[in-house]
Structure formats: structure tokens, C-alpha cells
Design brief:
By secondary structure, the chain is an alpha+beta fold. It contains 6 helices and 19 strands. Strands 3-4-5-6-14-8 form a 6-stranded antiparallel sheet, with no helix packed on it. Helix 1 packs antiparallel against helix 6. InterPro entries: EGF, WAK_assoc_C, WAK_GUB. Keywords: Glycoprotein, Membrane, Signal, Transmembrane, Transmembrane helix. Its EC number is 2.7.11.1.
Length: about 300
């Protein structure tokens, strides 16, 4: 193709560059098979900045990160503000394996759901601090739950655990879960070889194979637990809530890839008044300029 003059060449360059100016949405709405909504995000600048360091999306795998490990996120119940995670190193009715334990970061915006049950397995009744409360030594960890004996007996009846021939007394259950001021369950210090965590019995309390193994964590949007109005408007306009700037201020990431300070609507707002947000104004001006050059040079 031979251009007759530099102006024609320039107009063609403008049209070639126009598609690249409209980029894809930076903040994605899914990570693998898990839908992503506020307060979580798929990368820096997405979701709520308080949650971004702890819930990460890497290679389409959503994970919960603490100072000791990364745990796969299995599902999120947004209506109830509960996130479910699994620990590949913990024991279940189908598999028994050594584990280092579980921990939460003290400043993380999460707490244990009331339905979460921890069972410490194969603990030393002679040296573990969880068995020393009768000897006058105070433990920073909660005492074994006297109501947890059925959980222990059923877990120890599982084929994978029964092969170890462990007495039920070496199992310690406590709920509601409290990891003490350090927010950490260090099985080495507790002299326990493994642990099991569950958050539901699936209406089959006597069948440990059907239990829901994993850890259920609660989260709050903010101190008052109010869903931000700006975020709700952003999501209704097909945007994704995020943050930006030196103060991590709210931004709405739109399908075009541009950020706004309100929502992604072009034209009608909630009260049917006409409105064009700044990034859309820029796109319209670029398109208008391109058409002007093209028509002027025809």
C-alpha cells in the first residue's frame, strides 16, 4: 500500500491505534471458577486494599495467604460474608498426614466462623501444653472441649486414622476456635502430629466421611459492616470495585479498562439524567478526532 501524502499516512496510524486505546478490564470478575466480588480482587488495585494482601489470584487459583502458608480458597458465600479454605497438609477421614498447623495474621480482617471445629490429632498427653491445665501450668491455648469427644471418636474410627492405633485421649477438639494472642496453631509446640478442621456435618453427624473439611472464615466490609454505596453503583454498571492513588481512594474499574470515581454508565444515570464520565469523554474525543482527519483527507 502506497500513501499519497503524509496526512493520509497519519490518519491511518490514528485508526490503527484507536483499538489499542480501549483496553480490556484490568480487574477480573472471576478467578478460576470462583466469582470475585467486593471486598476481594484479582490483583493490586482491585477490591478493598485491606483484603488485597491476603486473598490473591495467581494463575487462576484463588488463595488465602498468611505469614506461614498459602491456602486454596474453595468457595465464598458473599451473602453471608464467609470464605472457605482448605489446607492440603491437614488430615481428613480419607487421609492422615503430618502438618505444621494453621495460622492467621493478627492484622488480617478475618475471624473464625462459629461453625469451624479444630481437632488436634496424635497429641502427646505427657508433654503437650493443652493437657497441663490440671497441673497448675496455664496454657495460652484453649483447653480441650469436653463436648468434642464424639468428634474425636468418629475421626479416629476412620480407616486412615485407625491404622495408627491412636487412643482417643490423644485427640483434642476445641470450638469456637481461638488460636490465642499469636493467632497461630503451632503443632510442633503443641506436640501434636496433625490436625483436622471442619465447618459442617452435612446432616450426617455420625458419618465423618461426609463432613465438610476445611476452615470457614468470616470477614467484615468495615467497622460498621456496611456495603459501600459507591461500590454497589459501580457493580450495577458492570464495573469492578477497586482503589488507586496515594491514599488508596475508591475507583470503579470499567470494562473498557479505564477507571472512574463513580460508575461505568454512559448516558443515563439512576435518575435518567444524561451523564458522561471523564474516561468516556476522552474516548469520544479520540474517535471524533479520527473521523475528522479521515473525512478531511478523503
Amino acid at each position: 500500500m502506497i500513501f499519497k501524502n503524509s496526512s493520509t499516512f497519519l490518519s491511518c496510524i490514528v485508526f490503527l491505534l484507536l483499538p489499542s486505546l480501549i483496553t480490556s478490564q484490568t480487574c477480573q470478575k472471576t478467578c478460576g471458577s470462583i466469582p470475585i466480588k467486593y471486598p476481594f480482587g484479582t490483583g493490586p488495585g482491585c477490591g478493598d486494599p485491606r483484603f488485597q494482601p491476603y486473598v490473591i489470584c495467581n494463575n487462576q487459583q484463588l488463595s488465602f495467604k498468611t505469614h506461614t502458608a498459602c491456602y486454596p480458597v474453595t468457595s465464598i458465600e458473599y451473602n453471608y460474608q464467609v470464605m472457605y479454605i482448605s489446607d492440603p497438609s491437614m488430615s481428613t477421614c480419607a487421609c492422615t498426614q503430618p502438618s505444621k498447623g494453621f495460622s492467621l495474621d493478627a492484622n488480617a480482617p478475618f475471624s473464625f466462623h462459629d461453625d469451624t471445629v479444630f481437632a488436634l490429632l496424635d497429641c502427646s498427653t505427657d508433654s503437650s501444653p493443652i493437657y497441663k491445665f490440671n497441673g497448675g501450668v496455664n496454657s495460652t491455648f484453649p483447653m480441650c472441649d469436653s463436648q468434642g469427644a464424639p468428634v474425636c471418636s468418629l475421626l479416629y474410627s476412620c480407616q486412615a486414622i485407625s491404622r495408627l492405633n491412636l487412643p482417643i485421649s490423644t485427640c483434642c477438639v476445641y470450638t469456637p476456635v481461638d488460636l490465642g494472642p499469636a493467632f497461630e496453631m503451632d503443632l510442633e509446640k503443641l506436640h501434636c502430629s496433625s490436625y483436622s478442621a471442619l465447618y459442617g456435618f452435612s446432616n450426617q453427624e455420625l458419618n465423618p466421611q461426609a463432613w465438610k473439611y476445611g476452615v470457614a472464615l468470616k470477614y467484615k466490609f468495615n467497622f460498621n459492616n456496611d456495603y459501600p454505596d459507591m461500590c454497589a453503583s459501580c457493580e450495577k454498571s458492570n464495573g469492578v470495585c477497586g482503589y488507586g492513588g496515594p491514599y488508596s481512594s475508591f475507583v470503579c474499574n470499567c470494562p473498557s479498562g479505564f477507571n472512574t470515581t463513580n460508575d461505568c454508565f454512559l448516558g443515563s444515570s439512576w435518575n435518567n439524567s444524561f451523564r458522561i464520565v471523564p474516561w468516556q469523554t476522552g474516548i469520544l474525543l479520540i474517535n471524533a478526532l479520527g473521523w475528522f482527519i479521515f473525512l478531511a483527507l478523503m
